[in-house]
């Protein structure tokens, strides 16, 4: 019988959530959110990026 807990999609999703939570806990200690950190990263890598370009990347 099929066991949903053995499904690679379920396993991957579970671990992805754990990684995101761990990352959130690390950046929150610096007073920012994960989304803010990602935006700062892309701004730092792409000087002169427009808000529209950034929103496209983050979407």
Please sum up the structure shown.
By secondary structure, the protein is an all-alpha fold.
Outline the structure in words.
This protein is an all-alpha fold. It has one domain. It has 3 helices and no strands. It has helices spanning 8-28, 34-45, 51-58. The termini are far apart. It comes from bioreactor metagenome. This is MarR family transcriptional regulator. InterPro entries: WH-like_DNA-bd_sf, WH_DNA-bd_sf.
User: What is the H-and-E element order?
Assistant: HHH
Low-confidence stretches: none
Count of discrete structural domains: 1
Number of strands: 0
For the report, how would you describe the main beta sheet?
Answer: none
The share of residues in helices is 55-70%
Query: What would you report as the Rg, rounded to the nearest angstrom?
Result: 16 Å
Shape: elongated
Proportion of residues in extended strands = under 5%
Averaging pLDDT over every residue, what do you get?
Answer: 94
Number of helices: 3
Structural class: mainly alpha
Distance N to C terminus:
38 Å
List keywords for this structure.
WH-like_DNA-bd_sf, 59 residues, single chain, MarR family transcriptional regulator, WH_DNA-bd_sf
Topology overview:
Layout: H1 8-28, H2 34-45, H3 51-58
